[in-house]
């Protein structure tokens, strides 16, 4: 398959290879990326493809995963299962990747988020945060473009902006973070990853040569299992996140689509 991919890439002037993030989560994820990067580099070296043309693109499937990677985040769910922590802090973690069964009985689980989704029921302590409509927030889309939200409505009840909650925890823990305002938090973001505060801009990032050289050090073989999509259909397409899953209107619309309009009391809302 990789040979066919190489042939296809070198036969066109503007090839585009889209790598789904799910295939990078396989056990041989590093080897997959190394192989694709090598193919892209060969296409550039051959002269068939312009050096400035970006061949490899990674398509992420989780909101703000790009921003997390920009900040230096490294996935650690496997580590949590292998070395269960005494304290687990779920920061808007609602994918269900970790369950109570993965943790010791005396493990303390703290959940910080909004809408009380999948992560909340397993928590010992719940810290209500603000949704994207209730705070000034920074998000990065899949192409690496930093965007921001502004307050449309006030957070309900005791809910607070996420950075304020973490700031308060740091003070109680005796390791007070030096941030008093959101602008100070964003100044720190700029130090860690400057692109996160350059709103509505896309940073140039064509380092195919360097990436190919980096992946040459990967000591991992490709598995014999074929690369196939882990999911071909999305059953509840409009209820795949905490906000839409909490929406009664969206629930009725999904029910109307899957069971027919007669199954919904007010089909006109859909």
How many β-strand runs? 7
- How many helices in DSSP terms? 9
Question: What ranges have pLDDT less than 50 throughout 5 or more consecutive residues?
Answer: none
Radius of gyration: 22 Å
Approximate helicity band: 25-40%
Q: What is the straight-line distance between the termini? A: 44 Å
What structural class is derived from the secondary structure elements? alpha/beta
Mean pLDDT: 85
Proportion of strand residues: 5-15%
Report the principal-axis shape.
Answer: globular
In spatial order, strands of the major sheet run 3-4-5
Main pleated-sheet profile: 3 strands, parallel
String of helices and strands: HEHEHHEEEEEHHHHH
Descriptive overview:
- Helices cover 31% and strands 11% of the residues.
- The chain has 270 residues and is an alpha/beta fold.
- Among the domains are: 1-59 and 205-230, no CATH class; 234-263, no CATH class.
- The longest helix has 17 residues, at 29-45.
- The radius of gyration is 22 Å and the shape is globular.
- The relative contact order is 0.13.
- The model has no long low-confidence stretch (mean pLDDT 85).
Top keywords for this entry?
single chain, 270 residues, alpha/beta, three-stranded parallel sheet, two-stranded parallel sheet, 7 strands, globular
Summarize the structure.
InterPro entries: Mopterin_OxRdtase, NDUFS1-like_C, Prok_molybdopt-oxidoreductase. With 270 residues, the protein is of the alpha/beta class.
Topology:
Layout: H1 2-10, E1 17-20, H2 29-45, E2 56-59, H3 65-70, H4 77-82, E3 87-91, E4 108-113, E5 125-128, E6 137-140, E7 146-149, H5 162-172, H6 182-192, H7 208-215, H8 242-245, H9 248-259
Parallel strand pairs: 1-2, 3-4, 4-5
Antiparallel strand pairs: 6-7
Helix pairs in contact: 1-2, 2-7
